[in-house]
Amino acid sequence: MSLLSLDNKFLVFGHRGAAGLEPENTLRSFQRAVDLGVDAIELDVHLKDKRLLVIHDDTVNRCTDGRGSLVGMELAQIRQLDAGLGEKIPFLEEVLASLPDNVAINIEIKSTKGVTGTARAVAELIQKHPARDILVSSFQHEELINFRNHDQTTKVAPLFSKTKPNMQAIALKLGAWSVNLSRELTTEKLVHQLHGSGYKVYVWTVNNPKEAERFQRWGVDGIMTDFPDRFT
Q1: How many CA atoms lie within 13 A of 119 on its CB side?
Q2: Whole-structure pTM over 0.85, yes or no?
Q3: Catalytic amino acids?
């Protein structure tokens, strides 16, 4: 049985690996989260020269020793940067190859202005890993529609940080598995409404154990945290 289909388990996702303990979105960070016993890893991808880079921002300024935009830099140049403690910005295929099959992965598709084909690239890479339990999410719901055009079976999740009246309609259109919410947006009423429509609810970024306990009482299906050591 796949991890993300377990109905009665409160899942712990390592947010960008173990972002509060290691350089985020690096192989070191993902391995630390796995070593701490997470159920799943959350990460972010951008498309660059037909390769999927695991990085949150569309610039390298915040997370590396370099400066510049992903669009404006050469791929080889990006890969030479230090993302912290000697780590490099990994390719998604490197992450998939490095993690055990029993750890699920939430891939968040990032959309950079002027860059097309990210959703298709994610779909094509997922096809090479049929045993891997994967959830694909995005704030750019059009990207999830694009993904659905290439992959009708992998679990998807629209992301919301603000209330939208058509939240459930978006999820329905996507055939969503879950609706992923910011902790600020999450209420007990909203969790119950989404559950009533058949969706899982995962919440980010939860670093306070008491807050996590409250979300669990409300029926939230899992949390994403920078500090997996506090929850595993």
Answers
A1: 21
A2: yes
A3: 15, 56
